[in-house]
TrEMBL record:
Matches recorded under InterPro entries: Aminotrans_3 (IPR005814), PyrdxlP-dep_Trfase (IPR015424), PyrdxlP-dep_Trfase_major (IPR015421), PyrdxlP-dep_Trfase_small (IPR015422)
Keyword Transferase: yes
GO MF term set: pyridoxal phosphate binding; transaminase activity
Organism expressing this protein natively: Labedella endophytica
Statement: the UniProt record of this protein carries the keyword Acetylation: no
Protein name: Aminotransferase class III-fold pyridoxal phosphate-dependent enzyme
Keywords: Aminotransferase, Pyridoxal phosphate, Transferase
Family recorded in the similarity comment: Belongs to the class-III pyridoxal-phosphate-dependent aminotransferase family.
Amino acid sequence: MTLDTVMQTLKPVDDGLRERAARVIPGGMYGHLNVTLLPASYPQFYRSGNGARLTDVDGNQYIDFMCGFGPMISGYKNPVVEAAAAAQLAEGDALGGPTPRMVELAELLVDTVGPADWAMFGKNGTDATSLAVTIARAATGKRKLLKGRSAYHGANAWFNPNPLGSTPEDRANIIFFDFNDIASLEAAAAEAGDDLAGIIVSPFKHDGPVDDQRLAEVDFARAVRALADRNDAVLIMDEVRTGFRLVTGSAWEPLGVAPDLIAYSKAIANGWALSAVVGIDALAQAASDIYATGSFWYSGVAMAAGIANIGLLRETDTPAHMDHVGTLLRTGLQAQAEENGFEVVQSGPAAMPYLRFVDDPGHAAALAFTGAAAARGVLLHPVHNWFLSTAHTEQDIADALDRTAEAFAEARSVLG
Ligand SMILES: Cc1ncc(COP(=O)(O)O)c(C=O)c1O
């Protein structure tokens, strides 16, 4: 049997699941994980993951650069993290209340993240950003929140980029600024007047399919801090996507800027559902005064996984490794793009790279390239940043580049 025949024989498993999903899951799949928006070579359903590799339900293997859109940072099925989770699972997960893991994890975060004096936990990134905003409003008694234009902070009524199903009142207290633009930040603060509760900001601009990623300029970061201080407002850093990939701690530490609250999720427990808000002492009272809870927020398994994972991330300079392998990937892709006559812009930190094709109406080149890469077993995304992990090796990058060389060539022949 040729490889093509094998692939065709196996293909129906994913197709079959998609047909069943279309009957019982709205839209067949909701949100950005609906792969009908991607080239046909992307699988919808996966069977397993190991290290930096994924296997789909049809048995096709991929070198994965999406890391589950961020959660995988130490490798799928990392033995240390999985052993800690299994040990806790043997004792129980959702019990009558929290396990000792909750205190241990809070202690570890306070010890790891410079500005943190305390931690509280949820499950999703949206839990963490929502909690942070609620704490900011409770602490200040004010309403307005400054937020980067088009920045994503979660899928609740305040933040969801799609307004369908929310009311103008839900969003009435959000005022937008442009990232790295101090004048727009000042203008937004002026509009808030004496009602400014907080500023929510991501460590770098990573929100748009049409825009490049932008690292924070040091003057901008300092201006955000100064403006929060001047207005007795809370500086909230959304590290849900970036957490522990740029800095093992708080991302603006190298810029000398400390937030008051930081929201983490995605990678902190290497794929187990966990989020955290950490904060400064001055906000501990407000954080305990608000009503914050969730049926699964106290469960022990994800917390045990989080302790093991953060322990691993602290052992070596993991951001340096992700930057190294990300740079190798980026350098290789740049050469391949040029060899095939594509002008591309690669932006953002190498640990979370983004590649945009210049003059690419409808993302035709991005779709052709990433579709051809997926067909060759390399998972990238046409319009979302990618993620490196500590599990990606130099060999993984070399293997991936062998395949992307062919993918660029195919994209060139398809697009002419
Ligand atoms: C920066 C940022 N904030 C918040 C969220 C929301 O996280 P979740 O999808 O876990 O609710 C995301 C998710 O992608 C994110 O990237």
